[in-house]
Design goal:
The protein is of the alpha/beta class. It is built from ten helices and twelve strands. The protein folds into three domains: 84 residues, Winged helix-like DNA-binding domain superfamily/Winged helix DNA-binding domain (Arc Repressor Mutant, subunit A), CATH 1.10.10; 98 residues, D-Maltodextrin-Binding Protein, domain 2, CATH 3.40.190.10; 99 residues, 3-Layer(aba) Sandwich (D-Maltodextrin-Binding Protein, domain 2). It has a five-stranded mixed sheet, sandwiched between helices. It has a three-stranded antiparallel sheet with strand order 10-7-11. The protein has a two-stranded antiparallel sheet with strand order 1-2. Helix 8 links the parallel strand 8 and strand 9. Helix 1 packs across helix 2, helix 1 packs across helix 3 and helix 2 packs across helix 3. Belongs to the LysR transcriptional regulatory family. GO terms for molecular function: DNA binding; DNA-binding transcription factor activity. This is LysR family transcriptional regulator.
């Protein structure tokens, strides 16, 4: 048995209005076309759909079942149309966003809260991971968007939108002689310090070496830390001073001091990268929000 939904809709309309003539008028068909359609459906299912009565057509048990099912299908189709319209207009759908850890621990809660408040019908998935993995995920299409960062000697592959500058600061122990000095520091003022650096060839360590070379000194590396929280702990213990992006100091220990640096020390740039070959209307609302929040 192969049923045709359009023919079933004709049957349902006859059941709703009670006559083939009225159904034909509402469907912009001829009465004979409606009658033939009803007969074809009855032939396919092998059951009568209507009983002829003095005041019109009455549905049989089979006809009642057809009309109930058609009503359900039409309601579901209308709901699907509404949902698809919402997706197309960026008011619904799914969005996956990747971020790096220091943004995850600083600005991400605000981003997520505001996005969900503005777009409650869009499902937002967030992935926080290191930069190398983040680029792999966006390149493979597992993410719609990723917020990444670069320094001046690095290029961000793919199509990007620059979001903001994240200045470099220096972390000092609370009792350090330069902790209370006014104005930004020059790295040359810290030439004799021991340094706490990031491990695994992190770019903040490369930045230290590049800037120190411009200031004509070789930094003395005392310790290597795995992340910026560990870096803060080592600085607080008096084991050295450290460079860090300002975003990483959003959550900062009370026993260290964060000092600005002058323009001789490069800042990192935050970028928004969109996955190639992926198109989600929900991307545009997130881009709009990130432009607003990360430009503040």
């Amino acid at each position: 048995m192969k049923l045709d939904i359009e023919k079933l809709r004709v049957v349902a309309q006859v059941g709703r209005v009670g006559s083939m003539t009225a159904a034909a008028r509402s469907l912009h068909l001829t009465p004979s076309a409606v009658s033939q359609t009803v007969q074809r459906v009855e032939s396919v299912i092998g059951l009568p759909l209507f009983e002829r009565r003095p005041h019109g057509m009455a549905l049989t048990d089979a006809g009642e079942r057809v009309m109930r099912r058609v009503n359900l299908i039409e309601a579901q189709m209308a709901q699907l149309e509404t949902e698809l319209r919402s997706v197309a207009e960026g008011r619904a759908g799914h969005l996956s966003l990747g971020v790096f850890p220091t943004l995850g621990s600083s600005l991400l809660p605000r981003i997520v809260m505001q996005f969900r408040a503005r777009h409650p019908t869009i499902t937002l998935d967030v992935r926080s991971t290191r930069l190398v993995a983040l680029r792999q995920l966006i390149g493979s299409g597992e993410l719609d968007l990723a917020i990444t960062w670069t320094y001046p000697w690095l290029n961000e592959p793919g199509s990007t939108l620059q979001l903001r500058t994240d200045p470099t600061v220096v972390l000092l122990p609370a009792g350090h002689a330069m902790a209370q000095e006014a104005g930004p520091l020059n790295l040359a003022q810290l030439a004799k310090e021991a340094w706490v650096c990031r491990s695994d060839g992190h770019e903040i360590t490369e930045l230290l070496h590049r800037t120190a070379a411009q200031c004509k000194f070789t930094p003395r590396i005392a310790l290597l830390a795995n992340d910026y929280q560990e870096t803060q702990a080592m600085v607080a213990a008096g084991l050295g001073v450290a460079l860090a992006p300002k975003l990483s100091t959003t959550t900062c220990r009370a026993d260290i001091v964060v000092r600005d640096l002058d323009d001789s020390v490069a800042s990192r740039q935050l970028h928004l990268v969109q996955a190639p070959n992926r198109s989600s209307p929900a991307v545009e609302p997130m881009i709009e929000l990130l432009r607003t929040l990360l430009s503040e």
